[in-house]
Known about the structure:
Layout: E1 6-12, H1 28-43, H2 48-53, E2 56-57, E3 60-67, E4 76-85, E5 90-98, E6 104-112, E7 115-116, H3 128-134
Antiparallel strand pairs: 1-4, 2-7, 3-6, 4-5, 5-6
Amino acid sequence: MRDNWQAEIEIEVPFHDLDPMEVVWHGNYVRYFERARHALLQGLDYDYPQMRDSGYAWPVIDMSVRYARPARFAQRLRVSARIVEWENRLRIRYEVRDAASGERLTKGETIQVAVEIANGEMCFVSPPILFEKLGVSL
């Protein structure tokens, strides 16, 4: 996999992300994934404003999350995002790891599809602009 097809961010768990059990509430991992995906897409120069300007929206149509161990207040986390499929849809895999030990806490995946903004039609093949941004020949 190409280096520019992945990104990693580091975050510190804020207090407001905790649930009453004093662990990160499960829904907040989606935000962590989004932050890593944003870094990944920025690195490709195809973040949401560039997607819109190219004539495509890329909604998330499916998501899965697997929780292995909880994250806690003030814990430093490394969140990675990696493109694993791009021909017909954009499949991104995520891992959340403890920054100090490298232990995997959570993993997940999102699937996004291209939708032409002009007509609202879903594309069954990813548009050429994605291939261009990935540096892949059609």
